[in-house]
Amino acid sequence: MNENITKRNELLAQKVIKGLESRNMKGYYAANKEEALAKALELIPTGASVTMGGAMSAHEIGLVEALKKGDYNFIDRDAAEDKRAAMLQAYDADFFLTSANAMTEDGVMVNIDGNANRVSAIAQGPKHVLVIVGMNKICVDADAAMKRARNVAAPINAQRFGLSTPCAKTGACMDCKSPDTICCQFLITRYSRHADRIHVILVNDVLGF
Asked: Which residues is 98 bridged to in the sheet?
């Protein structure tokens, strides 16, 4: 990555981390995917039960593969015969992996969900939530973060899943009520009442959508 962009990201990440700390969450900066993977594995102890929501960023840094191969109880909902049962196990897991659709410079996290399994687990249940966030998802404020979630993340995910929504056809949010909509539940995480529960790794890379 261009060294000027990297320097900017380092400085911006420190601002985000201070914002997270003020909201009772922990933040870390990783200069690349390899550092992000190392930090994630440092945070997750061997033997821990781990599950996840949709998190392309966790795949992209190699974390999902490492957990499947390592000494962890990885609950793979995609491989489970009973997907509902696997999803329900998330609420009692040691770690829940996810990303964010957007995050503000002062540490507010914005997520949109279709089935709500991801946003509900972020809000309540798992002992720890580990969030992998590329610096491409950092927005100046909550309004910009919501716009990014609705007009960037949602259309791309709708296209990825082959859904028949207006945004999949136009590339922008149409505030639809389509049966296929994935914009069913909105979660704004502005504070964690439980110390040491939410950990965010900010990665100097373009990750996810």
From this structure: 131
* pLDDT, tens digit, 9 for 90 and up, residues 158-189: 999 999 999 999 999 999 999 999 999 999 99
Domain with 102 in it: what CATH number?
Answer: 3.40.50
The answer to the question of residue 31 being in a domain is yes
**pTM as predicted:** 0.95
* pLDDT tens, residue by residue, 3-30: 889 999 999 999 999 999 999 999 999 9
